[in-house]
Design goal:
The protein has one domain. The two termini are about 25 Å apart. It is mostly helical. Helices cover about 85% and strands about 0% of the residues. The chain is built from 4 helices and no strands.
């Protein structure tokens, strides 16, 4: 390649000093970190809103379930009391309710584990990709 062609191929960044390039790098890294922080905040806000809505719905379901469950339990005890002694019917209905509650508690624990910890996973993955890209560029 001739000298003239080499000069033509030269870009504006070839003429910049190391200090200018480092300054640009610092500015770009600052912008990148800020953008990643905004992404993480947005992701955490979305998860927080979902968790809040879920908690409200769970509270309403619990209140309704408590009232309805109590009424149905009383009905079951009274119906069984027609066939067996009242104390035995109350015992059987109470045991059935406790077993059902235990199963619901296990299901709730499983669902809660799936929702936690509230980590901004996409933002973290994006930061990992950024670091990997920077490392690859630095090794060239």
């Amino acid at each position: 390649m001739t000298e003239e062609a080499e000069k033509t191929r030269s870009t504006a960044t070839d003429d910049r000093s190391t200090a200018e390039l480092l300054s640009d790098l610092t500015n770009q890294l600052t912008r990148l970190v800020r953008a990643e922080m905004r992404l993480a905040m947005t992701e955490l806000q979305r998860k927080g809103k979902r968790a809040g809505l879920s908690a409200a719905l769970l509270g309403m379901a619990g209140a309704g379930g408590l009232i309805g469950g109590g009424t149905l339990a009383a009905c079951a005890v009274l119906a069984l009391a027609l066939v067996i002694p009242a104390w035995l019917s109350a015992l059987l209905v109470g045991a059935a309710i406790l077993i059902g509650s235990g199963l619901f508690a296990l299901a709730a624990r499983s669902a809660l584990r799936a929702a936690t910890p509230p980590v901004p996973e996409r933002a973290l993955e994006s930061v990992r990709d950024d670091i990997e890209t920077i490392n690859r560029g630095a090794h060239r």
